[in-house]
Write a structure and sequence with these properties.
Blueprint: H1 7-23, H2 28-34, H3 41-47, H4 50-59, H5 77-84, H6 86-98, E1 108-112, E2 118-123, H7 131-135, H8 138-149, H9 158-165, H10 167-170, E3 176-179, E4 183-187, H11 188-207, E5 221-224, H12 239-264, E6 268-271, H13 278-286, E7 290-293, E8 296-299, E9 301-304, E10 318-321, H14 324-331, E11 336-339, E12 343-349, H15 358-372, E13 378-382, H16 391-399, H17 401-404, E14 408-410, H18 415-423, H19 428-440, E15 458-463, E16 470-472, E17 480-482, H20 486-495, E18 513-518, E19 521-526, E20 530-535, H21 538-541, H22 544-560, E21 569-572, H23 577-586, H24 589-594, H25 616-625, E22 630-633, E23 649-652, H26 655-664, E24 677-678, E25 684-685, H27 687-690, H28 694-704, H29 707-717, H30 722-725, E26 763-771, H31 778-781, H32 792-799, H33 817-823, E27 842-845, E28 850-853, H34 854-863, E29 868-871, H35 882-892, E30 894-899, H36 904-912, E31 916-920, E32 936-939, E33 953-958, E34 963-968, H37 973-980, H38 984-993
Parallel strand pairs: 4-5, 4-9, 5-6, 9-10, 12-13, 12-15, 13-14, 20-21, 20-22, 22-23, 26-29, 29-30, 30-31
Antiparallel strand pairs: 1-2, 3-11, 7-8, 16-17, 18-19, 24-25, 26-32, 27-28, 31-34, 32-33, 33-34
Helix pairs in contact: 1-4, 5-6, 8-9, 11-12, 11-14, 15-16, 22-23, 22-26, 22-28, 23-28, 32-33, 33-35, 35-36, 37-38
Length: 995
């Protein structure tokens, strides 16, 4: 499987390593400071990375899937290379000796194997002999270990380590720390622009006459294509194949680009379409829990460009969602700046009652945590109830962290975790390494031993026995409704005024019946009729208990003679091929098929709005009669308009409940009192007649979910599928940009780039492009959703021959900067003070007074050689869709944003794109200073970066004589280095070239 290196290749690695060691990621000024001392801590820390760099050249030559676990051998890729290349082993020993000068060399410890030898070395937290560490939450210990291991006194300083150790006192103060995750996770919507940027960086290297092979991710990057499949074909044995063919027709250009990236870049794995949902693949296969890299042991941690990356927290891996720029920075070895979070301790006790599912539990937890308030915090679960939750149950709870607002919902590793690792096919040696390391570093929870009291920022407790069957809706994930109250709650929603819990249907119209013909047979819909029933989403399809529970409901219903109405659009979209295997093994897929729940594909589908069209007769009946139709899905988000434009009521439910409501055909039902239907014997069938017991489900799981299913699934996944394998892509490591493509386009970030950094700069006589008030989110700034027919983006596409029906969404076109720039600030609900109360994506071109689309005004300024700035209020940039919220303004020519306050991640993303963030002084804003936005602004900054300090005061002057002081929000020396280079990506390019 692995290639043997030649001696000449080894020699070239040694030569490259020598150069690499001198210059990796060190600004020239910093290298000068350390050149006289080759054993300085910062330099030594960079030397430690050399072996990884050396081995990457081998990795480029091996099969695409080789950086994953090798099911056949416990040896890592690097270990196998080392076995045939003694020169690399000697090189690593040299570096290990030099690494002795690491700031925390005293705690670098060997982890012995019970039978002799060692698992590897690790930075030992107990060896610090600091009693504060014993009180730290487990999630904070992961941040601490990362800071210690990556400490170089430049990107990560000893003071940062102290901040984390002193978490109990520092976290309330909102201090910032750097964090370097072990790997990065992408899905196709957010992954395309990341790969575009890497390809563009290679072009920049080439134009500068440098080695283009240096542009590769420096940490493992996994990209799973799962966001493109739609539920077009249902209720068919051929649904998977038919939907995949349509998926490839729509996305051939994007898929070809990603396939090119999978071979062009080292350290990048692309999981083909049809393989599964990113977070379930991460849980079952990609998650390491503990890394062993060249003999160095450390905890797995991951940031992903999807908010539900948090699902991996259920496996004891620290992971959360970030914006694209942050992810790209992490790929390229840069630290993330984050506020040291508070941690909510969530104690679980008791045991779930018979018939209660993990979905019921997570909806209950979500409601509790939303009420408590956990935004920006970690939530860490503990207590005696932990032993009653399977790993899949934990992952379900962790998955919905975005819905309850936390950065993470973390479950420390314990015996349940180890059992799951074995079940999912990880080798015994891998599991032994994980357990030994985590125990030695006080990161393992053993509930058989007395528990050390840990300190949390606040506390919550839930007795699992109090959880009852429930759903959430009709418009928000945290609006939980007990199933026993569903009928009453539905009727209240019909009566209530329009809002999250109301539709304002007049009394006289509430019993309306819409009769229609469905393919020749009579059919009818009422308010609350179910028209979509989808078993979907990473939240639930990774959990065998609820998936097999759904199968048991279908089996019992089929045996009693119940049948789902044919006009209900039913679908089953598992998160991995493992689900199909155990449903077939159990014999339950047959019954799901009988009820219309055929497998339609392996991806996100209905949960992200890829539910496909409703039958024309059903759609007409809803529209013509103004029916409040319902969707019931096992997803994690149900905002109005997300699931389907025609389902105004959308309820989140467990997979078994999805089948139950599909059988009932309505959400307007009391399962305790009303029958679901009539059986083949003419008798009424009630909910209790089809609901499986906890014991039945456990028996099905025990007999049907087998380790070999995981192994065989992920061995097969590496081979791709015929449609993916037949995609023809160039073998070149440089991408051939198609100037006519409206999906993939070379961005202009590095146009006219030279080796000399542009240096620090102020802003002179800039116009105000936009003048905002408070709470402008990244959803206002960044292109999202459909492309409006009259927008600049629409005009751009029409001019290039793209018909309106083929516009697709901004999400699908994230790889084209020309489309995305035109969509920046294009939100139809945006409020710009320059428009004097008018709402919409336009602004005033100050020199002429014309009202123009924001893009058109920005281009008018750029063409005239004028800089622009943005004025804003509090919380500028909160929300998601973060990468283009910074890239878009850059492409529009925005040089600075002056706000009362910034959302933390958006501020760092602005810095990453070279845009200056400034904060008004406390008590001041544009209004109090009398700024209208019609002025011209000059921001006085030194031209020499060494004369600028993080957080210093800066004077801003206007052309009408006003002057005010702002705080410069470059918060670290590293951020100043980015600014000096014109952004993080040029910074990385220049430093790689200097190697």
């Amino acid at each position: 499987m692995y290639l043997t290196a030649s001696s000449s290749a080894s020699s070239s690695i040694l030569r490259a390593a020598s150069s690499y060691a001198r210059t990796r990621f060190l600004p020239s000024s910093f290298r000068n400071l350390t050149s006289s001392n080759p054993t300085s801590p910062s330099v030594i820390n960079h030397y430690r990375s050399l072996s990884s760099a050396a081995v990457r050249s081998f990795h480029c030559s091996v099969p695409r899937w080789s950086h994953r676990l090798d099911w056949r051998s416990p040896l890592s890729l690097r270990a196998q290379i080392r076995a045939v290349n003694p020169v690399i082993e000697r090189l690593e020993r040299t570096f290990a000796t030099m690494a002795a000068e690491h700031p925390f060399k005293a705690v670098l410890t060997s982890l012995p194997k019970p039978g002799g030898g060692e698992f590897g070395k690790f930075y030992s937290l107990p060896a610090l002999n600091d009693p504060r560490i014993d009180k730290l939450p487990y999630s904070i210990r992961i941040l601490l270990e990362s800071a210690i291991r990556n400490c170089d006194n430049f990107q990560v300083k000893k003071e940062d380590v102290e901040k984390i150790i002193d978490w109990e006192n520092t976290s309330p103060k909102q201090v910032e720390i750097p964090f370097k995750p072990a790997r990065v996770l992408l899905q196709d919507f957010t992954g395309v622009p990341a790969v575009v940027d890497l390809a563009c960086m290679r072009d920049a290297m080439n134009k500068l006459g440098a080695d283009t092979s240096k542009i590769n991710p420096l940490v493992p990057v996994d990209l799973v294509i799962d966001h493109s499949v739609q539920v077009d074909v249902t209720r068919s044995e051929n649904a998977v194949q038919a939907n995949m063919e349509l998926e490839f027709q729509r996305n051939k250009e994007r898929f070809s680009f990603l396939k090119w990236g999978s071979s062009a870049f080292c350290n990048m794995l692309v999981v083909p379409p049809g393989s599964g949902i990113v977070h379930q693949v991460n849980l079952e296969y990609l998650g390491r829990v503990v890394f062993n890299t060249d003999g160095m042991l450390y905890p797995d941690s991951v940031v992903g460009t999807d908010s539900h990356t948090t699902m991996i927290d259920g496996l004891g891996v620290a992971g959360w969602g970030v914006g694209g720029i942050e992810a790209e920075a992490a790929m390229l070895g840069q630290p993330m700046s984050m506020v040291l979070p508070g941690v909510v301790g969530f104690k679980l006790s008791g045991k779930l009652r018979n018939g209660v599912t993990a979905t019921d539990l997570v909806l209950t937890v979500t409601q509790m945590l939303r009420k408590h308030g956990v935004v920006g915090k970690f939530v860490e679960f503990y207590g005696d109830g932990m032993g009653e939750l399977s790993l899949a149950d934990r992952a379900t709870i962790a998955n919905m962290s975005p819905e309850y607002g936390a950065t993470m919902g973390f479950f420390p590793v314990d015996h349940v975790t180890l059992q799951y690792l074995k079940l999912s096919g990880r080798s015994d040696e891998t599991v032994a390494t994980i357990e030994s390391y985590l125990r030695a570093n006080k990161m393992f929870v053993d509930y058989n031993e007395p528990q050390q009291e840990r300190v949390y920022s606040s506390y919550l407790e839930l007795n699992l026995a109090k959880v009852e069957p429930c759903v959430s809706g009709p418009k928000r994930p945290h609006d939980r409704v007990p199933v026993r109250e569903m009928k009453a709650d539905w009727n209240s929603c019909l009566n209530n005024k329009v809002g999250f819990k109301g539709f304002a249907v007049p009394k006289e119209a509430q019993d309306k019946v819409a009769k229609f013909s469905f393919h020749g047979q009579p059919a009818e819909l009422k308010h609350g009729s179910v028209v979509i029933a989808a078993i979907t989403s990473c939240t639930n399809t990774s959990n065998p208990s609820v998936m097999l529970g759904a199968g048991l409901v279908a089996k019992k219903a089929s045996e009693l003679g119940l049948q789902v109405k044919p006009w209900i659009k039913t679908s089953l979209a598992p998160g991995s091929g493992v689900v199909r295997k155990y449903l077939l093994q159990s014999g339950l897929q047959e019954y799901l098929n009988n009820q219309g729940f055929h497998i339609v594909g392996y991806g996100c589908t209905t949960c992200i709005g890829n539910s496909g069209e409703l039958d024309e007769s059903v759609a007409s009946a809803i529209s013509e009669n103004d029916i409040i139709a319902a969707a019931v899905l096992s997803g994690n988000r149900n905002f109005e308009g997300r699931v389907h434009a025609l389902t105004r009521a959308n309820y989140l439910a467990s997979p078994p409940l999805v089948v139950a409501y599909a059988l009932a055909g309505t959400v307007d039902i009391d399962f305790d009192k009303e029958p679901i239907g009539t059986g083949k014997d003419g008798k009424s069938v009630y909910f209790k007649d089809i609901w499986p017991s906890t014991e039945e489900i456990a028996e099905a799981v025990q007999s049907s979910v087998l380790p070999d299913m995981f192994r065989s699934t992920y061995e097969a996944i590496t081979k791709g599928n015929p449609m993916w394998n037949h995609l023809s892509v160039p073998s070149s490591t440089m991408y051939s940009w198609d100037p006519n493509s409206t999906y993939i386009h070379e961005p202009p970030y590095f146009k006219n780039m030279t080796m000399e950094p542009p240096g620090a700069h102020g802003v002179k006589d800039a116009y105000c492009l936009l003048n905002f008030g408070d709470s402008i989110t990244t959803d206002h700034i960044s292109p999202a959703g459909s492309i409006h027919k009259d927008s600049p983006a629409a005009k751009f596409l029409l001019d290039r021959g793209v018909e309106r029906k083929d516009f697709n969404s901004y999400g699908s076109r994230r790889g084209n900067d020309e489309v995305m720039a035109r969509g920046t600030f294009a939100n139809i609900r945006i409020v710009n003070k320059l428009l004097n109360g008018e709402v919409g994506p336009k602004t005033i071109h100050v020199p002429t007074g014309e009202k123009l689309y924001v893009f058109d005004a920005a281009m008018r300024y750029k063409d005239a050689g004028h800089d622009t700035i943005v004025l804003a209020g509090t919380e500028y940039g909160s929300g998601s869709s973060r990468d283009w919220a910074a890239k878009g303004p850059l492409l529009l020519g925005v040089k600075a944003v002056i706000a009362k306050s910034f959302e933390r991640i958006h501020r760092s993303n602005l810095v990453g794109m070279g845009i200056i963030p400034l904060c008004f002084k406390s008590g001041e804003d544009a209004d109090t200073l009398g700024l209208t936005g019609c002025e011209r602004y000059t921001i006085d900054l030194p031209s020499n970066i060494t004369d600028i300090r993080p957080g210093q005061d800066v004077t801003v002057m206007t052309d009408n004589g006003k002057s005010f002081i702002c705080t410069l929000r470059f918060d670290t020396e590293v951020e100043l280095a980015y600014f000096d280079n014109g952004g993080i990506l040029p910074y990385v390019i220049r430093n790689l070239i200097k190697q």
